[in-house]
Design a protein that fits this description.
The protein has one domain: Ferritin, core subunit, four-helix bundle (Ferritin), CATH 1.20.1260.10. It is built from six helices and no strands. Helix 1 runs antiparallel to helix 4, helix 1 packs parallel to helix 5 and helix 5 runs antiparallel to helix 6. It is elongated, with a radius of gyration of 16 Å. The N terminus is likely disordered.
Length: 174
């Protein structure tokens, strides 16, 4: 059951990445800024849920890292949009990410203990795969502002580390 659930989580996350890729031609810098901020905020909310539910020290340390890192990157993103006098624009993709994340948090809320930990980490791996792929393939190439593009490139390196860390913690769970 858990393997099937983890596979479903990853598949849903991959659909988000595919949706992002399909809309590349239509994305503007304000929309990219909103998608990026939204993705970071959603991961922070998921990490806070993990901190409230998990007692596993490694899962908690990972969740604390997610809160810390995504908070820093989102602050950098907000500082950049203020500097550039750009207003992030909500769009179909940021709304879809928000809706999917709410559904995933509701599913995770029903789980406890090791079952929660495994499902949370599986979701984190899938989420980072999808978002990182979208950043690399869609958002960076679509960004016209060099500072936004640079922030996305820096974030991508950090978020790839998140994916790897999530996989390592998941592999260590018994």
């Amino acid at each position: 059951m858990l393997v099937r659930s983890s596979t479903a989580i990853a598949a849903i996350c991959m659909l988000s990445g595919a949706a992002l890729a399909q809309s590349a031609a239509k994305l503007t810098d304000p929309q990219i800024a909103h998608i990026t901020y939204t993705a970071g905020q959603l991961d922070t909310e998921g990490a806070k849920q993990a901190l409230s539910k998990s007692t596993n020290k490694d899962v908690r340390a990972f969740a604390e890292q997610m809160v810390r890192d995504h908070t820093v990157v989102n602050k950098q993103a907000l500082d950049l949009v203020q500097k550039l006098k750009v207003t992030p624009q909500d769009n179909d993709l940021s709304r879809a990410l928000t809706e999917q994340a709410a559904g995933k948090r509701a599913e995770l809320a029903k789980l406890k203990g090791a079952e929660f930990d495994k499902a949370y980490l599986a979701n984190e791996v899938g989420y980072h795969l999808a978002v990182n792929g979208a950043i690399e393939v869609t958002l960076i190439p679509s960004a016209t502002n060099p500072e936004l593009r640079s922030l996305l490139q820096t974030g991508l390196k950090l978020f790839e580390g998140h994916r790897q860390h999530a996989q390592e913690v998941a592999s260590a769970l018994k």
